[in-house]
Structure formats: structure tokens, C-alpha cells
Amino acid sequence: MPRLLFAITLMPSLLMTGCASSQLDNLVPVTINETLMLNQEIRLQDPPSVMSGNFGYRLAPGLYTAVKANAAGTFFQGEGQSLTYIMGANSENLVGGIWIPVAANARPRLYFVTVKADPNTDPAIDNVTRNYASNAIAGGGAIVPTTAGASIGGAILKAIPKAKPGKITLFGEISDSRAIGVIQSAYANRTH
After folding, report:
1. What is the 3-state secondary structure (H, E, C) of the chain?
2. Measured distance CA(152)–CA(132) in Å, rounded
3. Cα distance between residue 114 and residue 92, in whole Å
């Protein structure tokens, strides 16, 4: 169930990311050893949305290594699960990091990397699908007629991004000036 909650609450953030095709086109592995050190954690809040709750991101302090790049920028990935997506009282730890743009007028973005196969093949997701279809949600109580429950569940599960391992997903540009300052300082002091 936490994976479904993660997927559902992540959808507004992904929908607000805008077109990321140029940042993801023609990516190549970085061949030189380039790292940056975040000396403090970065916390960002999602803008208010129709969904109630407190949503945001936490980027852990630590070493971030350049892993992929193209003409638009470089992806610096943290060690382990350095990115946390916060959904109210719940959270999801992710492999990810910071995309640093080449263009001076562009702002950095956070990203995550899909580690597991398509979330729709997750047994927990399959159980949720069956629960929606049979209308046995969270303790078995009916919330809507079975046909509507199956339709709603099916629509939600079809909306979950189908991602293969290694797929990079960008969040929207960072607008918090303090966070941008921390990232720019770390980038200016990077090793290469």
C-alpha cells in the first residue's frame, strides 16, 4: 500500500515537471570523476495541491557523483537512497540526486532513478488492484459501488508511470533560493 500511496501522491509533482525531453535526450555516462559535496540537507516543499497533506523532498547531505550528462546538463547522483519524497506522515526513499543545467538561466532540478521493475508488477500493487476490483479497500468496507470502485482503481493504476530500471525522472525546477545557493556553492567547489 505505501507504494500505491507514493505513486498517487507523486503524480501532481510529475505533472508539474514540464517538458524534460532536452534534459534526458542523448545522455551518456560521465567518463571523468566529478563529484560535489552537499554539506547540509536540502528540504523542499511541494506547492499546495488539491490533495491535502504535507508533500516535499529531502536531499541528504553527502557526496554526489556525476553519472550521466548531455548538452543540457549533468546528473549528480547521491550515495544510496539520498532523495526522500515526503507524503504527509509517510515517505519514500529513492535513488537520485541533482541535475545541474549548463544554461545559466536554468535552475537545478531533483531527480530519481527507477531501481525496480515496473511498479505495476509489484505484488503489493497487484493486491491493491484486486481490492479495488472487489471493492475491499482498507478493511473491506465498500466505499462506492463495485463498478465505480473498479473503474477508479483501474484509472489510478493506469496513471502510475510505467518505468523500467534505470529510467531517470526529473522533478520541476527548484525555486527555493536558499536551496539553489547551497547547490550552486557545492557545484562551484566540485572536484574534477
Report:
1. CHHHHHHHHHHHHHHCCCCCHHHHCCCEECCCCCEEEECCCEEEECCCCCCCCCEEEEECCEEEEEEEEECCEEEEEECCCCEEEEECCEEEEEEEEEEEECCCCCCCEEEEECCCCCHHHCHHHHHHHHHHHHCCECCCECCCCHHHHHHHHHHHHHHCCCCCCCCEEEEEECCCHHHHHHHHHHHHCCEC
2. 8
3. 12
**Cβ proximity of 133 and 150 under 8 Å:** yes
Please give the grid coordinates belonging to residue 167.
529510467
Mean pLDDT, consecutive 10-residue stretches, the chain (192 aa), reads 46 42 81 94 76 78 95 94 87 92 93 72 42 39 42 48 75 90 95 90
pLDDT value at residue 39: 94
Fill in the amino acid letter for 188. Answer: A
Cell digits for 21?
525531453
Predicted local distance difference test score (pLDDT) of residue 53: 60
Distances (CA, A) of 183 to 38, 62, 123, 134, 154: 7, 12, 38, 48, 40
- CA–CA gap between residue 14 and residue 160 (Å, rounded): 10
